[in-house]
Amino acid sequence: MFSRAFKMTHFGTFSTASLEGARAPRCILLGYRQAGAAVSELDHLKEEVAYLKFWLGIVVVTDISLAGWLISSSETAAPYTVFFAVVGLVLLSAGIVFLHRRIERHITRIKEL
What we know:
Elements: H1 4-7, E1 10-11, E2 14-15, H2 32-35, H3 41-73, H4 79-112
Antiparallel strand pairs: 1-2
Helix pairs in contact: 3-4
C-alpha cells in the first residue's frame, strides 16, 4: 500500500529501510548457548557477574532506603506498615547475602578457568 519512498523516510532517528534486514536482538537472560552464540564460558561468567552486580546494587539501595524510612517514620506510620517494612527489610537483606554469595561462586569459577 505504501510506496518504497515512504518506507525510506526517517521516523525520529530510526529508518524503516535500515531495519528490514536486521536480526532481532538477543536477550542476555536466555543464556548464550540458547541464543546460539558461540561465546566462551569465561565471557559468559563475566557477563553473569556484571548482571548480578547490577541487581545487587539495586537491592542494596532499596534496603538502605527502607531502613532510612523505618528510622525516620516508624513512629507515625501504622503498625501493619511498620511490620511489612521490617519483613521487607529482612527479605531484602537476605537477598543481598544470596546475591553476594552467588557472585562469589561465579568469581571462584572464573579463577578456575
